[in-house]
Structure formats: structure tokens, C-alpha cells
Amino acid sequence: MIGRRMVVAVAFLLWGGAALAEGQSYLYGEIAVPRGALGGLAERAEALGIPVAMWGADGLVVIGAADEEALLAAGVYLYLDGDQFLIGLDTPVERAVLRGDGTTAQLIVWAGGDVLVPPSELFLDLLRELGLLKAGTAITLVAKEIPLKLPRVPEGLKLDPTLWALLNHPDWFRAAGELGLARVGLRVRVVAEGQGALSEKLEPYVLSSTGTLMDVLIPIGLLPELGRDPAVKVVRPPLVPYPAGG
């Protein structure tokens, strides 16, 4: 019904032209997440028949699908990990995600064909139903391209370029595989080199520590916080041993 439809103002800005190669370019925008939106989010998703992958005391738990592979194939899916979330839509004509925390989120859209278009009413209505987008929200979308080389890490952020590339990639799941990173749900396995204890917020993600090396399984969205922690000198992927003579 028209009376129930969400009114969303979308400003669509294309930098560099409208015709962009699929898989190399995408639309990007940022929105404010309504206060308290994460409370009951999993229940609202389940009520809509959306499979959910949640991080719990025993690790990643998938609800509404046989496993994570089936969840990703469902067309619509939700990941929840503390205050980190990702809602994804994957159809033959549109791929879109909203990912973030309880304060801000990134809206990312791929479209079928070579021309980028704003997110469909289907995805925007879904976000409204989940309580992640208020009626009347103004969204500015710009076209971005996936860089051909690893991007330069900002000064003061002690992240390996591979991890910075993952953080800024529009598709975390695909990028983790292509970059050879171990991913579990929204988390990625890294090594933090440093001395001393991490901040109270980050300490629960430490799997083990030798004093100078910390094995960490952390939500991708929290990588910047880890890279700025005073106890950390550098955050990098784990070293992968190669066979002798390889």
C-alpha cells in the first residue's frame, strides 16, 4: 500500500560516468542507524523468514538455514556479531549490503548490467521492516571502484595493506577468499604484534597470546580500532608456512 511505503530521498552521484564495469565498480553511501535498531533485530529477521548467522558463546550459529553456504544462497541473509551487523540481498539483478554497527552503516549496491543504479525499493523496504532505516532518510550514493592494487593505509593506522583492502572492499566474503584470509562469519583471523594488553573492548577477541604476538579473531569492522590500539605495533595476516622446496 502506498500509505505504508517508505519515502527515501536518494541522491545519486556518478563520479567518472554512468557506464561502469560490473564487478569493478559499485555504489556507496553512509547512513545513521536508528537508535536501538539492533535490539530484537534477529527476531525481526526470523519473523520475515530471513536466515541469521549469529556469533554466540560456542562460535557462529546459523538459524534458518542448514549452514553458512545455504544461508548465503538464500537470497537475503543477516549476520550479527555483538554490535556488528550485515544484511545482504543477492538476486539475479541486484546485490546489496548494509553493514555497520549500532551507530552508522555503509550501504553498498551492485546492479545487473554495466550501468549502476540506486538500491531497489525491495531492499529499502526490507531495511525499513528490519528497523535499520527511517522513513525520509536522505541517502547520498557515489560510485567507487575496487582498486587494482592494495590501497595505501592511512598514517597512524597499524594495519597490513591486505587487511585495509579487506575492510574497504564492497564484498567482504569474496575479498577474504581472494586475499587468502581466514574468515568466520563477520570475523577475520589476524596476528597483532605488540606489547601489553589490548583495550577492554578488544580483549575478548584474543584467542591466544605469547606476550608479543596475539592471535586474534575479530570482526572486520573493528580492524581500525585494533590498528589504533596503543598496545599494538602492527596487525597482519597470520604467516602461512610453505612446504620445503615450494
Word description of this protein:
With 246 residues, the protein is an alpha+beta fold. Helix content is 17%, strand content 35%. It is built from six helices and 14 strands. The protein has helices spanning 41-47, 68-72, 121-129, 161-168, 172-178, 223-228, and strands at residues 9-13, 25-32, 52-56, 59-63, 76-81, 84-90, 94-100, 104-111, 138-145, 183-184, 187-194, 206-209, 213-219, 232-236. The strands form two sheets. A nine-stranded mixed beta sheet has the order 1-9-2-8-7-6-5-3-4. Strands 10, 11, 12, 13 and 14 form a five-stranded antiparallel beta sheet that branches. A hairpin with a 2-residue loop joins strand 3 (52-56) and strand 4. The longest helix has 9 residues, at 121-129. The chain is globular, with a radius of gyration of 19 Å.
